[in-house]
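Assess this one:

_____
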Amino acid sequence: MEYGDEIVRRVRDLAPVFAERARGAEEARRLPDETIADLAAAGLFEMLVPKRFGGAERGFEEMAAACREAGAGCASTGWLSVIYTLHNWMVGLFPERAQAEVWADRPYALIPCVLAPTGTAAPADGGHRVTGRWSWGSGVMHAGHVMVMALVTAGEAIEPRLFLLPRADVTVHDVWRTSGMRGTGSNDIEVADVFVPAHRSVPLLDLAEGRSPGSFVHSGALYRTPLVPVFALTGAAPVLGVAEGVLARFAERTRGRVMAYSGERQRETTGAQIRLASATADLAAARLLLEDALRGVVRAVAEGSCDLRRRAGARLVAAHVAGTARRVVNDLCSAAGASAQFTDSPFQRAQRDVNTISGHVVFEPDAAYALYGRIELGLDPGPVTLV
């Protein structure tokens, strides 16, 4: 068994533990420290860290498979599995000096990243001074560093840049009171006129095009991969995992459930049989679609041909997979009966979680479908589109 496959197995074995902790994570509005420790011990966070800094330097396909398994146990755990693992890969896209600073003590870091450019950065001697406030800081409650996107204005030009800061340089505002995904602790991040040296920032365009400083430090194709396709596809993995977890629970519940009033066993009803089969087929198709898209991006990067059409296709697949997962979860939860809505039921939690995470901008179906359609039909996607 290869190292990547072993990590997937370890996380799969942990999924029932994550499920047991899900209610506590929701009430605390952050993941338990034990869950972070378990994921770290499984080797997940260092999967995409370069070998020269002690990481495993594995691939996105294995990483997505592991995060899908985590999502089957707990949506918030699955989402932060992606956040922390993918953002370690993003550190590998910064200049080498920044990488050495972040990974000085261990081959992974816990880093939230907000790509919405809701801050500003003014050029200063040797770097920039960054100011702003960012929402949706998933994972900030365990963070040692943060990454935020800010706009740099130089004359008439405006350049979005990603900035890497120590956790001590930011203020976290406790605002994360939501109906779903509560365990992610996605609180606001504020930076007040903090100096960030030049080696701790990267232009967004370089990340989007796969030509970041890190791509010249590390020879592997992993570090020449455009940001948006892998962000969208790996992000969809735990959403799919949530639906797979609900399907497994629905099958188990249906086998033993006796219908109120009629006394009929639910497993003997045609409706339950059809819903089980339909959900099985839909999720299997979504999984194949996701795996094929990730494999295609990896292959295209290795061949030097990850063009706009393929990148837009990744957005299309991610939105479609997330939409399929949401539909399946809502359908199965409605068929599980009213008692599935009690607060100690994993059904209602999964339903709220998947409905919340499906609202993420990268999974917005109209935007993703229109983007693919425009590019397929030969139209320009526009200057501010994430692709």
Remarks:
- Strands lie at 113-124, 127-137, 145-154, 157-166, 171-173, 187-197, 201-203.
